[in-house]
Amino acid sequence: MAEQKTKPTEQSVESFLDKIADESVRDDCTSLVKLMKKVTGAKPKMWGASIVGFGQYHYKYESGHEGDSCLTGFSPRKQNITVYVMPGFTEQTDLLSKLGKHKAGKGCLYIKRLADVDVKVLEKMIDHSVKHLLGKYS
After folding, report:
1. What fold characterizes domain 13-137?
2. How far apart are CA 117 and CA 11, in angstroms?
3. Whole-structure pTM over 0.90, yes or no?
4. Which of 117, 21, 123, 25 is closest to 75 using CA atoms?
5. Model pLDDT for residues 46-92, shown as the tens digit of each residue
6. Domain locations in the chain as residue ranges
7. Alpha helices (H) along the chain
């Protein structure tokens, strides 16, 4: 079985965020740290070189594939901030419609800036995701 690529590292979250050139993106990321810390009760930790993750769970699929992942997190990318929200959005269509300007992938939200979305709705989505993962994999 292939080794998991994205793992927790000892890299400092603060130094990672300090390197973000765009001040508004850096401020949004600082706000996301506060929000995700509040929702998860966990301290931020770097996962790989560019994901700020919170909490951790161990998953095992029916196929036998297993690994560890953060409960939620984000990554400031060139085009947007990617927010990792599992298990996707099939159970959260009502919240998704109230979120504001975003794009959605299978388990990711792509946000240009926090001002484009309703942060309270985002908080509810993250909370739902974390509770789902803890219920399924604890």
Report:
1. Aspartate Aminotransferase, domain 1 (3.90.1150)
2. 29
3. yes
4. 25
5. 999 999 999 999 988 888 888 899 999 999 999 999 999 876 666 67
6. 13-137
7. 13-18, 23-40, 93-99, 119-137
